[in-house]
Predict the 3D structure of the following.
Amino acid sequence: MKKALLMTILLLSIPLFSLLNLTMGSVHIPPEQVFAILLHGESTNEVWNTIVLKTRLPQTLTAMACGAGLSIAGLEMQTVFRNPLAGPSVLGISSAASLGVAFIVLLSGTLGGGFMGRFGVFGNAALTMAAISGALLVLLLIVYLSQRLEGNATLLVVGVLIGYIATAIIGVLKYFSTEEDIRAYVIWGLGSFARVTGGQVSVFVVLMAVLIPFTMLLSKPLNLLLLGELYAKNLGLNVRRARMLIITSAGILTAITTAYCGPIMFIGLAVPHISRGLFRIEDHRVLLPATMLCGASLALVCNLIARLPGFEGALPINSVTALVGAPVALAVLTRSKRQRFSKGG
Protein backbone atom coordinates (compact mmCIF):
# COMPACT_ATOMS: atom_id res chain seq x y z
CA MET A 1 0.00 0.00 0.00
CA LYS A 2 2.80 2.41 0.92
CA LYS A 3 4.69 1.59 -2.31
CA ALA A 4 1.57 2.24 -4.40
CA LEU A 5 1.08 5.60 -2.67
CA LEU A 6 4.71 6.60 -3.25
CA MET A 7 4.50 5.58 -6.90
CA THR A 8 1.30 7.63 -7.30
CA ILE A 9 2.95 10.68 -5.69
CA LEU A 10 5.94 10.38 -8.04
CA LEU A 11 3.61 9.99 -11.01
CA LEU A 12 1.62 13.09 -10.05
CA SER A 13 4.76 15.13 -9.36
CA ILE A 14 5.77 15.02 -13.03
CA PRO A 15 2.77 16.97 -14.44
CA LEU A 16 3.00 19.35 -11.46
CA PHE A 17 6.69 20.14 -12.00
CA SER A 18 6.13 20.25 -15.77
CA LEU A 19 3.47 22.92 -15.30
CA LEU A 20 5.81 24.91 -13.02
CA ASN A 21 8.53 24.67 -15.68
CA LEU A 22 6.11 26.06 -18.27
CA THR A 23 4.81 28.93 -16.11
CA MET A 24 7.84 30.06 -14.08
CA GLY A 25 10.95 31.83 -15.32
CA SER A 26 12.15 35.31 -16.18
CA VAL A 27 8.68 35.83 -17.71
CA HIS A 28 5.74 34.57 -15.62
CA ILE A 29 2.95 33.03 -17.69
CA PRO A 30 -0.41 32.30 -15.98
CA PRO A 31 -1.30 28.56 -15.87
CA GLU A 32 -4.59 29.12 -17.74
CA GLN A 33 -2.65 30.72 -20.61
CA VAL A 34 -0.23 27.77 -20.67
CA PHE A 35 -3.17 25.36 -20.96
CA ALA A 36 -4.64 27.49 -23.77
CA ILE A 37 -1.34 27.38 -25.65
CA LEU A 38 -0.94 23.61 -25.19
CA LEU A 39 -4.56 22.80 -26.09
CA HIS A 40 -5.29 25.35 -28.80
CA GLY A 41 -1.82 26.48 -29.90
CA GLU A 42 -2.37 30.13 -29.01
CA SER A 43 -3.06 32.58 -26.17
CA THR A 44 -3.80 36.26 -25.76
CA ASN A 45 -0.08 37.09 -25.95
CA GLU A 46 2.01 36.13 -28.98
CA VAL A 47 5.25 36.36 -26.98
CA TRP A 48 3.92 33.80 -24.50
CA ASN A 49 3.17 31.43 -27.40
CA THR A 50 6.77 31.62 -28.55
CA ILE A 51 8.22 31.21 -25.04
CA VAL A 52 6.11 28.14 -24.22
CA LEU A 53 6.23 26.32 -27.56
CA LYS A 54 9.76 27.20 -28.68
CA THR A 55 11.65 27.29 -25.37
CA ARG A 56 9.98 25.96 -22.24
CA LEU A 57 8.11 22.95 -23.67
CA PRO A 58 11.22 21.53 -25.43
CA GLN A 59 13.25 22.07 -22.22
CA THR A 60 10.61 20.34 -20.11
CA LEU A 61 10.36 17.31 -22.41
CA THR A 62 14.16 17.09 -22.66
CA ALA A 63 14.59 17.27 -18.88
CA MET A 64 12.05 14.50 -18.31
CA ALA A 65 13.56 12.17 -20.91
CA CYS A 66 17.16 12.88 -19.86
CA GLY A 67 16.45 12.46 -16.13
CA ALA A 68 14.59 9.20 -16.65
CA GLY A 69 17.22 7.74 -19.00
CA LEU A 70 20.27 8.64 -16.92
CA SER A 71 18.64 7.42 -13.69
CA ILE A 72 17.83 4.02 -15.17
CA ALA A 73 21.35 3.76 -16.64
CA GLY A 74 22.81 4.54 -13.20
CA LEU A 75 20.66 1.87 -11.53
CA GLU A 76 21.74 -0.71 -14.10
CA MET A 77 25.42 0.13 -13.64
CA GLN A 78 25.21 0.02 -9.83
CA THR A 79 23.54 -3.38 -9.99
CA VAL A 80 25.78 -5.05 -12.57
CA PHE A 81 28.98 -3.80 -10.90
CA ARG A 82 27.60 -4.19 -7.36
CA ASN A 83 29.04 -0.75 -6.61
CA PRO A 84 26.90 1.97 -4.98
CA LEU A 85 29.06 4.71 -6.51
CA ALA A 86 28.87 3.48 -10.10
CA GLY A 87 27.13 5.88 -12.46
CA PRO A 88 26.19 6.09 -16.14
CA SER A 89 29.64 7.48 -17.02
CA VAL A 90 31.60 4.75 -15.22
CA LEU A 91 32.63 2.95 -18.44
CA GLY A 92 34.04 6.05 -20.15
CA ILE A 93 31.09 6.44 -22.54
CA SER A 94 30.45 10.07 -21.52
CA SER A 95 34.17 10.80 -21.86
CA ALA A 96 34.13 9.32 -25.36
CA ALA A 97 31.14 11.49 -26.29
CA SER A 98 33.02 14.53 -24.96
CA LEU A 99 36.04 13.51 -27.04
CA GLY A 100 33.90 13.35 -30.18
CA VAL A 101 32.64 16.88 -29.51
CA ALA A 102 36.18 18.06 -28.72
CA PHE A 103 37.40 16.92 -32.15
CA ILE A 104 34.68 18.98 -33.82
CA VAL A 105 34.81 22.11 -31.63
CA LEU A 106 38.51 22.34 -30.76
CA LEU A 107 39.92 21.30 -34.12
CA SER A 108 37.61 23.69 -35.98
CA GLY A 109 39.56 26.70 -34.70
CA THR A 110 42.92 25.10 -35.46
CA LEU A 111 42.00 23.98 -38.97
CA GLY A 112 39.45 26.56 -40.06
CA GLY A 113 39.67 29.64 -37.91
CA GLY A 114 36.75 28.96 -35.57
CA PHE A 115 34.10 28.32 -38.20
CA MET A 116 32.02 26.06 -35.90
CA GLY A 117 30.72 29.11 -34.06
CA ARG A 118 28.98 30.27 -37.29
CA PHE A 119 27.27 26.97 -38.11
CA GLY A 120 24.20 27.59 -35.91
CA VAL A 121 21.66 24.75 -36.04
CA PHE A 122 23.84 22.71 -38.38
CA GLY A 123 26.66 23.02 -35.85
CA ASN A 124 24.41 21.61 -33.09
CA ALA A 125 23.54 18.65 -35.32
CA ALA A 126 27.24 18.09 -36.04
CA LEU A 127 28.04 18.15 -32.31
CA THR A 128 25.25 15.64 -31.61
CA MET A 129 26.47 13.25 -34.30
CA ALA A 130 30.08 13.58 -33.12
CA ALA A 131 29.08 12.81 -29.53
CA ILE A 132 26.98 9.81 -30.56
CA SER A 133 29.79 8.48 -32.78
CA GLY A 134 32.40 8.71 -30.03
CA ALA A 135 30.11 7.19 -27.39
CA LEU A 136 28.91 4.31 -29.56
CA LEU A 137 32.45 3.39 -30.66
CA VAL A 138 33.52 3.02 -27.04
CA LEU A 139 30.27 1.21 -26.21
CA LEU A 140 31.02 -1.37 -28.92
CA LEU A 141 34.49 -1.84 -27.41
CA ILE A 142 33.04 -2.26 -23.91
CA VAL A 143 30.41 -4.76 -25.11
CA TYR A 144 33.12 -6.74 -26.92
CA LEU A 145 35.31 -6.78 -23.81
CA SER A 146 32.38 -7.77 -21.60
CA GLN A 147 32.25 -11.03 -23.54
CA ARG A 148 35.99 -11.64 -23.17
CA LEU A 149 36.63 -10.55 -19.58
CA GLU A 150 35.44 -12.61 -16.62
CA GLY A 151 35.34 -10.13 -13.74
CA ASN A 152 33.35 -6.91 -13.49
CA ALA A 153 36.28 -5.23 -11.74
CA THR A 154 38.50 -5.60 -14.82
CA LEU A 155 35.82 -4.11 -17.05
CA LEU A 156 35.42 -1.25 -14.61
CA VAL A 157 39.17 -0.54 -14.74
CA VAL A 158 39.01 -0.56 -18.56
CA GLY A 159 36.24 2.06 -18.42
CA VAL A 160 38.28 4.25 -16.08
CA LEU A 161 41.33 3.96 -18.38
CA ILE A 162 39.22 4.93 -21.40
CA GLY A 163 38.10 8.01 -19.48
CA TYR A 164 41.71 8.95 -18.69
CA ILE A 165 42.77 8.49 -22.33
CA ALA A 166 39.87 10.63 -23.57
CA THR A 167 40.68 13.34 -21.01
CA ALA A 168 44.34 13.32 -22.03
CA ILE A 169 43.50 13.73 -25.73
CA ILE A 170 41.04 16.53 -24.94
CA GLY A 171 43.80 18.26 -22.95
CA VAL A 172 46.14 18.13 -25.97
CA LEU A 173 43.39 19.48 -28.25
CA LYS A 174 42.74 22.34 -25.82
CA TYR A 175 46.44 23.26 -25.81
CA PHE A 176 46.44 23.80 -29.58
CA SER A 177 42.98 25.42 -29.80
CA THR A 178 41.82 29.00 -29.86
CA GLU A 179 40.34 30.66 -26.79
CA GLU A 180 36.94 31.00 -28.50
CA ASP A 181 36.71 27.27 -29.25
CA ILE A 182 37.85 26.28 -25.75
CA ARG A 183 35.09 28.48 -24.32
CA ALA A 184 32.51 26.85 -26.63
CA TYR A 185 33.65 23.39 -25.53
CA VAL A 186 33.55 24.33 -21.83
CA ILE A 187 29.99 25.65 -22.24
CA TRP A 188 28.95 22.39 -23.92
CA GLY A 189 30.52 20.45 -21.05
CA LEU A 190 28.37 22.27 -18.49
CA GLY A 191 25.32 20.46 -19.83
CA SER A 192 21.98 21.97 -20.79
CA PHE A 193 18.38 20.93 -21.35
CA ALA A 194 17.92 23.99 -23.59
CA ARG A 195 20.28 22.75 -26.29
CA VAL A 196 17.71 20.36 -27.80
CA THR A 197 15.44 22.44 -30.04
CA GLY A 198 13.17 22.10 -33.04
CA GLY A 199 12.95 18.66 -34.61
CA GLN A 200 15.73 17.35 -32.37
CA VAL A 201 13.30 17.30 -29.42
CA SER A 202 10.98 14.87 -31.20
CA VAL A 203 13.88 12.60 -32.18
CA PHE A 204 15.34 12.62 -28.65
CA VAL A 205 12.02 11.98 -26.88
CA VAL A 206 11.03 9.20 -29.31
CA LEU A 207 14.41 7.50 -28.91
CA MET A 208 14.10 7.56 -25.12
CA ALA A 209 10.45 6.44 -25.28
CA VAL A 210 11.56 3.38 -27.26
CA LEU A 211 14.66 2.54 -25.20
CA ILE A 212 13.33 3.04 -21.66
CA PRO A 213 10.53 0.40 -21.90
CA PHE A 214 13.16 -2.10 -23.11
CA THR A 215 15.06 -1.68 -19.83
CA MET A 216 11.94 -2.76 -17.91
CA LEU A 217 12.36 -6.21 -19.51
CA LEU A 218 15.73 -6.53 -17.75
CA SER A 219 14.26 -6.53 -14.24
CA LYS A 220 14.55 -10.32 -13.84
CA PRO A 221 18.27 -10.62 -14.78
CA LEU A 222 19.01 -7.55 -12.64
CA ASN A 223 17.30 -9.20 -9.65
CA LEU A 224 19.26 -12.42 -10.23
CA LEU A 225 22.58 -10.56 -10.48
CA LEU A 226 21.90 -9.05 -7.06
CA LEU A 227 22.18 -12.56 -5.63
CA GLY A 228 25.70 -12.98 -7.03
CA GLU A 229 26.94 -14.37 -10.34
CA LEU A 230 27.42 -17.94 -9.06
CA TYR A 231 23.91 -18.14 -7.62
CA ALA A 232 22.48 -16.54 -10.78
CA LYS A 233 24.20 -19.21 -12.91
CA ASN A 234 22.72 -21.95 -10.73
CA LEU A 235 19.28 -20.46 -11.35
CA GLY A 236 19.83 -20.72 -15.11
CA LEU A 237 20.90 -17.16 -15.98
CA ASN A 238 23.43 -16.71 -18.76
CA VAL A 239 25.52 -14.18 -16.83
CA ARG A 240 27.68 -13.02 -19.75
CA ARG A 241 24.67 -12.47 -22.00
CA ALA A 242 22.74 -10.67 -19.23
CA ARG A 243 25.73 -8.47 -18.41
CA MET A 244 26.16 -7.58 -22.09
CA LEU A 245 22.47 -6.65 -22.47
CA ILE A 246 22.47 -4.51 -19.30
CA ILE A 247 25.71 -2.71 -20.20
CA THR A 248 24.45 -2.14 -23.76
CA SER A 249 21.15 -0.74 -22.47
CA ALA A 250 22.85 1.61 -19.97
CA GLY A 251 25.51 2.59 -22.51
CA ILE A 252 23.03 3.55 -25.24
CA LEU A 253 20.93 5.59 -22.79
CA THR A 254 24.08 7.38 -21.61
CA ALA A 255 25.37 7.94 -25.16
CA ILE A 256 22.14 9.49 -26.42
CA THR A 257 21.54 11.74 -23.41
CA THR A 258 25.15 12.95 -23.46
CA ALA A 259 24.99 13.61 -27.19
CA TYR A 260 21.87 15.74 -26.92
CA CYS A 261 22.28 17.38 -23.49
CA GLY A 262 26.00 17.23 -22.76
CA PRO A 263 27.51 15.34 -19.80
CA ILE A 264 24.79 15.73 -17.14
CA MET A 265 26.35 14.86 -13.78
CA PHE A 266 25.10 13.23 -10.57
CA ILE A 267 21.49 12.44 -11.60
CA GLY A 268 22.43 8.90 -12.64
CA LEU A 269 24.42 8.44 -9.43
CA ALA A 270 22.01 9.96 -6.93
CA VAL A 271 18.52 8.98 -8.11
CA PRO A 272 18.88 5.17 -7.70
CA HIS A 273 19.86 5.74 -4.05
CA ILE A 274 16.94 8.11 -3.55
CA SER A 275 14.57 5.49 -5.01
CA ARG A 276 15.96 2.74 -2.78
CA GLY A 277 15.68 5.03 0.23
CA LEU A 278 12.04 5.88 -0.55
CA PHE A 279 10.82 2.36 -1.35
CA ARG A 280 13.13 0.32 0.93
CA ILE A 281 13.29 -2.43 -1.66
CA GLU A 282 15.79 -4.06 -4.02
CA ASP A 283 13.25 -5.60 -6.41
CA HIS A 284 13.94 -4.09 -9.85
CA ARG A 285 10.34 -4.69 -10.94
CA VAL A 286 9.55 -1.79 -8.58
CA LEU A 287 12.90 0.03 -8.63
CA LEU A 288 13.11 0.50 -12.42
CA PRO A 289 9.79 2.38 -12.83
CA ALA A 290 10.34 4.19 -9.50
CA THR A 291 13.82 5.32 -10.59
CA MET A 292 12.48 6.43 -13.98
CA LEU A 293 9.75 8.58 -12.37
CA CYS A 294 12.07 9.92 -9.66
CA GLY A 295 14.74 10.83 -12.25
CA ALA A 296 12.26 12.63 -14.50
CA SER A 297 10.83 14.54 -11.52
CA LEU A 298 14.25 15.51 -10.13
CA ALA A 299 15.48 16.69 -13.54
CA LEU A 300 12.40 18.93 -13.82
CA VAL A 301 13.15 20.39 -10.38
CA CYS A 302 16.79 21.04 -11.36
CA ASN A 303 15.71 22.71 -14.60
CA LEU A 304 13.24 24.85 -12.65
CA ILE A 305 15.92 25.96 -10.17
CA ALA A 306 18.31 26.77 -13.02
CA ARG A 307 15.74 29.15 -14.56
CA LEU A 308 14.46 30.81 -11.37
CA PRO A 309 13.59 34.51 -11.70
CA GLY A 310 16.48 36.71 -10.65
CA PHE A 311 19.14 34.82 -12.62
CA GLU A 312 20.27 36.31 -15.92
CA GLY A 313 19.71 33.60 -18.49
CA ALA A 314 19.99 30.19 -16.82
CA LEU A 315 22.42 28.57 -14.42
CA PRO A 316 24.54 25.67 -15.77
CA ILE A 317 22.44 22.57 -15.14
CA ASN A 318 25.44 20.64 -13.78
CA SER A 319 25.85 23.23 -11.04
CA VAL A 320 22.29 22.51 -9.90
CA THR A 321 22.43 18.71 -10.24
CA ALA A 322 25.72 18.65 -8.29
CA LEU A 323 24.04 20.41 -5.36
CA VAL A 324 21.59 17.49 -5.24
CA GLY A 325 23.84 14.60 -6.21
CA ALA A 326 27.03 15.39 -4.30
CA PRO A 327 25.44 15.18 -0.81
CA VAL A 328 23.88 11.84 -1.74
CA ALA A 329 27.22 10.48 -2.96
CA LEU A 330 28.89 11.75 0.21
CA ALA A 331 26.25 10.05 2.36
CA VAL A 332 26.82 6.75 0.51
CA LEU A 333 30.58 6.99 1.01
CA THR A 334 30.21 7.77 4.70
CA ARG A 335 27.70 4.99 5.28
CA SER A 336 29.87 2.42 3.44
CA LYS A 337 32.94 3.40 5.47
CA ARG A 338 30.95 3.22 8.73
CA GLN A 339 29.69 -0.26 7.82
CA ARG A 340 33.24 -1.50 7.11
CA PHE A 341 34.45 -0.22 10.45
CA SER A 342 31.55 -1.84 12.29
CA LYS A 343 32.24 -5.17 10.60
CA GLY A 344 35.96 -4.88 11.37
CA GLY A 345 35.18 -4.20 15.03
